[in-house]
Amino acid sequence: MKRPTVWLAGRWFGTTRITPRVRTPERTVSAEFPTRHSPDTDRAKQEPSRYPWHCRTQRPLLQELAGYVLCALRPAPRALVLDAHPALRLHSAAFRRAPAAAETPCAFAFSAPGPGPPPPPLPAFPEGTGTEPASCPLAFRLDPFTDYGSSLTVTLPPELQAHQPFQVILRYTSTDAPAIWWLDPELTYGNAKPFVFTQGHSVCNRSFFPCFDTPAVKCTYSAVVKAPSGVQVLMSATQSVYLEEEGVYRFHMEHPVPAYLVALVAGDLKPADIGPRSRVWAEPCLLPMATSKLAGVVEQWLSAAERLYGPYMWGRYDIVFLPPSFPIVAMENPCLTFIISSILESDEFLVIDVIHEVAHSWFGNAVTNATWEEMWLSEGLATYAQRRITTETYGAAFTCLETAFRLDALHRQMRLLGEDSPVSKLQVKLEPGVNPSHLMNLFTYEKGYCFVYYLSQLCGDPQRFDDFLRAYVEKYKFTSVVAQDLLDSFLSFFPELKEQSVDCRAGLEFERWLNATGPPLAEPDLSQGSSLTRPVEALFQLWTAEPLDQAAASASAVDISKWRTFQTALFLDRLLDGSPLPQEVVMSLSQCYSSLLDSMNAEIRIRWLQIVVRNDYYPDLHRVRRFLESQMSRMYTIPLYEDLCTGALKPFALEVFYQTQGRLHPSLRRAIQQILSQGLGPSAQPSPEPSTDAEPDPAALLLGDEAPGSTISLRDVNVSA
C-alpha cells in the first residue's frame, strides 16, 4: 500500500510580525498506527493524506494559518492520534468514505501586502466531481503534552470495517507557529517585499499542520500554492510547475519523507542555473554572488557523491539562500537546500555546509533515523560522507584540516559540558516532554563521525566501506532505521569481521560507542593534513612563548593572509581557548593582525572580535560595534553578546543593542534581551518591544536550557542541520 500523500493550501494577507517558538516535543502515539521503521508497518497502515491551508493576517501583530488536514487511511482503528501544538486551534473534525475519483487540490494563496480584502474564512473542503460521499462530524480532543506540544486524538466511527478506505478532515488555525517564520520587508536584504519560510527540524512542523511528527513515519505530499505577482513560491518537492494563467504553483514530492522535511519558502526570489540539475534561488541583490560562488561546483559534488553512494534519487538539487533571520546555518530539505545568506562571504564554510547537505540526500533524507535519540545516524553518516566527497574533490589535506577544526570544537564543548554529560552519548535517552532539538550539538556530528570512521577502518579499505554504505542506502532508502539496522548490515556485509567479533573488542565495543558518555573512543588519523595544521600549531606556540618581543617578531613574519580560512579560524580558536591572555600579548596581536583580519570574512572576524571582547581590549571595540551594526544573523550576534555580558562590557552591549534592535528579527531580539537582562535590576533591563505576546524565550534554539547565559557559545554548535 502507498504511504500517505499530503496536500497543502492556504492564504497570506498583509505584512507580518511573528516571533516563532522552537519548543515542541517528540510524541507520536497511536494504538493502530505503529511508528516502527519497518517498511511493513510504515506502509501498510496509511493511504494518501492532505494538508491544505489558508493563511490570514490580522494586522499588525497576529498571523493565522487556517487550513485543513485530509488523512486517507485504510485500516479501521478506533482513534487517530496525531502530533499537534498549542499554536494550533482545532475547529472541526469530520469523516467520510473515500471517493472513487481523485480529490481536487486546494489553493494556497498569498495576497499582496497592504490594504485589501478581509481575512479569508476557514477553507471549505473542495468538492471534485460532486459524487463524493458526505462527511460526518467526529469527536476530538487536544491533550497538553508539554508547554511545546499537544496530542490530538480523533475518535473514529465504530461502523468502519477493516481495510475500508476512509478520510479524516481536520480544520484548524495556527497562530504564532514556531515552524513558520514571517519576515517584514526590512528583515530581508532587498527591503522590498515580505518573506516567509518554514523550518520543521526537529519537531516544529506539528505547529504547521497536525501530523505524525516523528522521523519514523514517512509520506509523500502534494501542494497547490497561489501567490501574487512577484512572489516566488518554492517547496521541497521533486516536481513543481507554475500555471501562469491560474497564478498557481503546483508541487509534488513523489518519495516518502518524514514530516520535518516538508518545507516552504515564498518571497522576492530569483533563479540562476549553476549546473545541469541545479540552480540557486536568492534575492536579486544576492543572486550574482551566490551564482559566482557555486556555478559548476555543485554538479562536481553531486557526481562525486554518486560515484561513492549510488544515484542521486531526488531529481533536482536546488539551493535557496534565506535572509539572516534563518535560525540555523543550513537545512537539507529534499530537492531544495535552505541555507543562510550570511555564509556566502565565507567560501570554505559555504563549501563544507553545502556538501554536508548534499550528503544528507543519501544519509538523513533517503535513510532516516527512526528516533531523534539516534540523530547521529543522520548527522554522523552525513558528516562521514561529506568528508569522503571533499577528499575526492579537494584532497585529503583539506579534509583533515576541516576535521581537525571540528574536532577541536568538539573537545571545547566537552570541556564545557563535562565528560559525564548525558548528551555526549550517541544513543541519548529522551525523557517524555524533552525537546529533541536539545540534541543539536557536536556529539551527534563529530562523535557520530568518529564511530563511522572507526567502522570504515575495521574493514581496512575506504572503498570497500563506500560499497557497504551504497548497499545500505539501497536496502533502506525511503525508510527509517535504528542503529542496530546499520550495525547488523555492516557485520552481514563483512562476515569476516563478524567472525572476528569486532563488535566486542575490549574498550571499543559497539555498545560502548553508542552508550558511553565522553569523547569518541577513537579519533581519525589526520596526519595527511599536517602540512596545513602544523603552521597553525607553530604560530600559536610562538604567541604563547617567552619572551614576548622575540616571539612576536618571529610570529609577525608568518603571512596568514595566504592561509586557508580553516587555518586562520583554527588559530583564532586556539587563542580564544587561551583567553584571557596577557594584555601585552593582545596588544601585539592587534598590532599584527587586527587590520588584516578586519578585511576577512565573517567567520574570521567574529573569532577575532571575541578575542577582543574576552580580553577587554578597548582599542578595538569600535570594530565590535561596526560588526554588530552590520549583522542580523543569530550565529554572528549571540556569541558576541554572550561574551560582552560576562564582564565589564555589558554597558557597551546595551548601547549597541539599543541602536541596532530595530534591524533584528523579534526572535533574535528577545534572545539578546534575555542575555542582556542577566544580572540587571528591573530598572536597567532592556525594554521589550511592544507586544502582548508572552511566549517563552527561544534563545535555546540549539542548546535548549543551556543557553543563553551559558559559557557555551552558540558558534560552537551552530552546525548545519
UniProtKB/TrEMBL annotation:
Coiled coil: none
Cofactor: Zn(2+)
Sequence segments annotated as region (Disordered): 25-50, 679-708
Compositional bias (Basic and acidic residues): 34-48
GO molecular-function terms, A-Z: metalloaminopeptidase activity; zinc ion binding
Residues of the Peptidase M1 leukotriene A4 hydrolase/aminopeptidase C-terminal domain: 531-676
SMART domains: Leuk-A4-hydro_C (SM01263)
Pfam families: Leuk-A4-hydro_C (PF09127), Peptidase_M1 (PF01433), Peptidase_M1_N (PF17900)
Active-site residues from the entry: 357, 445
Cofactor binding notes: Binds 1 zinc ion per subunit.
Superkingdom as given in the UniProt entry: Eukaryota
UniProt keyword list: Aminopeptidase, Hydrolase, Metal-binding, Metalloprotease, Protease, Zinc
Gene3D superfamilies: 3.30.2010.30, Neutral Protease Domain 2, Peptidase M1, leukotriene A4 hydrolase/aminopeptidase C-terminal domain, tricorn interacting facor f3 domain
Positions bound to Zn(2+): 356, 360, 379
InterPro entries in the cross-refs: Aminopeptidase_N-like_N (IPR045357), Aminopeptidase_N-like_N_sf (IPR042097), ARM-type_fold (IPR016024), LTA4H_cat (IPR049980), M1_LTA-4_hydro/amino_C_sf (IPR038502), M1_LTA4H (IPR034015), Peptidase_M1 (IPR001930), Peptidase_M1_C (IPR015211)
Keyword flag Oxidoreductase: no
GO BP annotations listed: proteolysis
Family membership: Belongs to the peptidase M1 family.
Protein's UniProt name: Arginyl aminopeptidase-like 1
